[in-house]
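hey m, so remember when u said the tokens were messed up on ur end? i reran from scratch. heres the input so u can diff it against urs
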Amino acid sequence: MIPISGSKLQGNPRLNSFLCFVVWFLFAGCAGVPQHPTWKNATGGEMHERLMWQAVRDKDWNNFEQRLAPAFVGVDPAGKSYDRAGWVELWKAAAIQNYSMGEFTVQPAGADMVLTYVITLPGFADQIRVVSVWQQVKSRWILTASTMTPVRGD
């Protein structure tokens, strides 16, 4: 322990130990991305998108639907547009069992986040470029729009 000269902390090992614990605890809280992301500890747009696809894979339709805005609009890779209820039915029927995601970009836009990424959905579609718009409402984020475009090889 480093003694603090000229202070009341010098010579008080219990207080020094306590202060070291407090400093360690504060730094431990800054250890990065949560090991097991949940809707309550999601820290950004990419994590919200990953949780949405996890909900689709796990057939967690309650959480999936709760994160869609009432006026949600989605466009599938074939160009068909959907409202909120139609989007839920699309993914229920798709029976996604696995997915992979990459090439994320997140752009803040006022109270919104605009995300672009590529997702592969085996059995549904090869690579798809997704553009999603998330909006913060009160203390949570909701998905307001999502559009999908097939990635074409050159």
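this time it looks ok to me. The first helix runs from residue 13 to 28. if urs says something different then somethings off w ur setup not the seq
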